[in-house]
Amino acid sequence: MINIIGLGYIGLPTALMLSTHGIDVIGTDCNKNLVDQLKSGAISFKEDGVSELLDEALMAGIDFSTDYQVTDTYIISVPTPYDKFTKKIDVTYVLSAVSDVLKVAPKGAVIVIESTVSPGTIDKFIRPKIESLGLMIGDDVKLVHAPERIIPGNMIYELVHNNRTIGSDDLIVGEEIKKLYSSFCQGEIVVTDIKTAEMTKVVENTFRAVNIAYANELAKICRYDNMDVYEIIKICNMHPRVNILQPGPGVGGHCISVDPWFLVGDYPSLSKLTEVAMKTNDSMPEYVLNRIYEIMKENGMTDVGRVGLYGLTYKENVDDTRESPTLQILESQKRHLGTGLKVYDPFVEREIVDNQFYNFNDFLNAVDLVVIMVKHNEIIDNMEMLKDKLILDCHNVCTLPGIYHI
């Protein structure tokens, strides 16, 4: 039996996949309401196919509990935020989960850390914690790192088809965990050492962050000198060895906006390029806010309450608002002018900000300037509804004439 600790965006789909592929699974989370909700057959976030997968898993015998189980294998999938001042990883949740597992784990149990961590985190924090309890790693407890590699909006497909990395002190143990994940994963699974596995996950997300930052920097340069960044990128990408990404209003989610800071925090003198890239991406919400003020001034608008931000999530067609650029804009506006900007997102049904709308028509009737922060299918399919509005398109998806870009 596998005990999966943490039933969020990563832990829950992993638990469901294992359960529906013949593995006995109990999911554990400290949130009793979440546990009760899952037992009743309801998921806590919107994701195509996950609700159906939960139904299958319940039929297959999956169970959920607030209690840690006595078993031979644990998968820990809890958040790993970073300290916004030091940029170092905050391992509080992982350490807490490991500590609770050790209270019930039998001798020889395998603890798999699936949470993304910075290189050396297991050496610096997890091993000392285990050893402080008088336990011998490799005998009393076996450690494995198996970083996730999926994205909200396409979770089920990526769980099945993406390649994965397993890091282990003991390659035999690593192969056993590889076999476990192979119950559902059709991608290639590489077994290596723990620190290499830690580093590869952070490097993957840093690579993406740096490339996004280059596109965002290009957007600023082109805006400054009155050039069309999208036309320039399109032409440059005709080169067979060039693939510039698209600029945007900022970077959100729990991967690209967080993980690269782990490198900056741990290797401050060696990660200057990463640091500049992250600061470039982090500057985009403030940059978009300044563009809003410029457009308002140009069109004689004085009431910020007639400006609407379309989209609260960090990416299209999901309900995930973690590190959302829109939330960053609202926080920045609050510091400068207090509240006022209107907000709407078809995927966010709970109230999380001031001036939040829950109907597209009501939102459009309340604003004169629409800022496309997220390219949900809804707005792309209904672009004609914006024809009488001023539009700041942060994703170059609007086909109407006379729009503004970042």
TrEMBL record:
Keywords: NAD, Oxidoreductase. It comes from the Bacteria. The keyword 4Fe-4S does not apply. It holds the Pfam family UDPG_MGDP_dh_N. InterPro entries: 6-PGluconate_DH-like_C_sf, NAD(P)-bd_dom_sf, UDP-Glc/GDP-Man, UDP-Glc/GDP-Man_DH_C, UDP-Glc/GDP-Man_DH_C_sf, UDP-Glc/GDP-Man_DH_dimer, UDP-Glc/GDP-Man_DH_N, UDP_ManNAc/GlcNAc_DH. GO terms for biological process: polysaccharide biosynthetic process. Coiled coil: none annotated. Residues 308-400 form the UDP-glucose/GDP-mannose dehydrogenase C-terminal domain. GO terms for molecular function: NAD binding; oxidoreductase activity, acting on the CH-CH group of donors, NAD or NADP as acceptor; oxidoreductase activity, acting on the CH-OH group of donors, NAD or NADP as acceptor. Belongs to the UDP-glucose/GDP-mannose dehydrogenase family. This is UDP-N-acetyl-D-mannosaminuronic acid dehydrogenase. It comes from Selenomonas ruminantium.
